[in-house]
């Protein structure tokens, strides 16, 4: 194990590439990802509560030698991926177009709180996180490149699919790393709630595969890292499930 890998592992994170890693959070096995540039640090998804967000922040700072998270990309608007956002004061928050208005809505915040409690989050913690929730200030239609200093990353609005606001993150490298959000799940069958747009989901995965290519590492919203063949199989299963080609 090299020094950088040991630093990530000491915090319970899986190093995927130089300056790129992720953690599988307890409870729902949701992924949070970290990308470190020379001038900026980007986090993909923030956990299910403010306490979990604060824990992620502390671990990210330990991995980066005390640097703070400067950018956040939210993969989609579900409680286990967004309710920790307020723990990252001053970070620039990005989301798929329309997610800003959605997360600013009192009704959405109430629904996120209710869903979190239904899934086992303590009621006070869920209410606190929902009240403090930070909506994206920057929205992505199509693709947007961010310069983190010494490396550029791509945010891509490839949905709708799992929700109406699915944002993925592509990190170039020797092998591209693609943070897929819940468009891809490995530790269970892809979950299609009331906000899923199932008939469009296979198309979203086609765009995801075109973006990452055959050799990329695909990081699901839940579960182990997979390859393009896994994503393609899941795409075909979803097409059968929702009766589309």
TrEMBL record:
**Sequence ranges assigned to domain Metallo-beta-lactamase in this UniProt record:** 29-222
User: Per its UniProt entry, which superkingdom is the organism in?
Assistant: Bacteria
Checking Gene3D superfamilies in the record gives: Ribonuclease Z/Hydroxyacylglutathione hydrolase-like (3.60.15.10)
Cited SUPFAM superfamilies:
Metallo-hydrolase/oxidoreductase
Annotated Pfam families: Lactamase_B
- Xref: InterPro entries: Metallo-B-lactamas, NDM-1-like, RibonucZ/Hydroxyglut_hydro
This protein is called MBL fold metallo-hydrolase
Q: What is the lineage of its organism?
A: Bacteria, Bacillati, Actinomycetota, Actinomycetes, Kitasatosporales
């Amino acid at each position: 194990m090299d020094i950088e890998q040991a630093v990530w592992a000491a915090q319970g994170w899986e190093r995927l590439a130089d300056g790129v890693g992720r953690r599988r959070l307890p409870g729902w096995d949701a992924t949070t990802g970290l990308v470190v540039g020379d001038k900026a640090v980007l986090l993909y998804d923030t956990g299910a509560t403010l306490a979990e967000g604060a824990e992620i922040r502390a671990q990210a700072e330990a991995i980066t030698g005390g640097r703070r998270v400067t950018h956040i990309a939210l993969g989609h608007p579900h409680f286990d991926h967004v309710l920790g956002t307020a723990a990252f004061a001053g970070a620039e928050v990005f989301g798929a177009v329309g997610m800003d208005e959605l997360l600013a809505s009192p009704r959405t915040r109430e629904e996120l709180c209710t869903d979190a409690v239904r899934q086992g989050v303590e009621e006070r913690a869920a209410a606190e996180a929902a009240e403090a929730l930070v909506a994206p200030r920057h929205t992505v239609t199509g693709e947007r490149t961010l310069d983190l200093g010494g490396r550029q990353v791509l945010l891509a609005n490839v949905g709708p699919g799992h929700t109406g606001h699915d944002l993925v993150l592509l990190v170039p490298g020797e092998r591209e790393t693609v943070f897929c959000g819940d468009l891809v799940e490995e530790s269970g069958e892809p979950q299609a709630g009331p906000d899923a747009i199932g008939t469009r989901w296979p198309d979203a995965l086609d765009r995801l595969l075109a973006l990452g290519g055959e050799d990329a590492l695909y990081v699901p919203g839940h579960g182990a890292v997979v390859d393009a063949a896994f994503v393609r199989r899941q795409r075909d299963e979803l097409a059968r499930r929702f009766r589309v080609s």
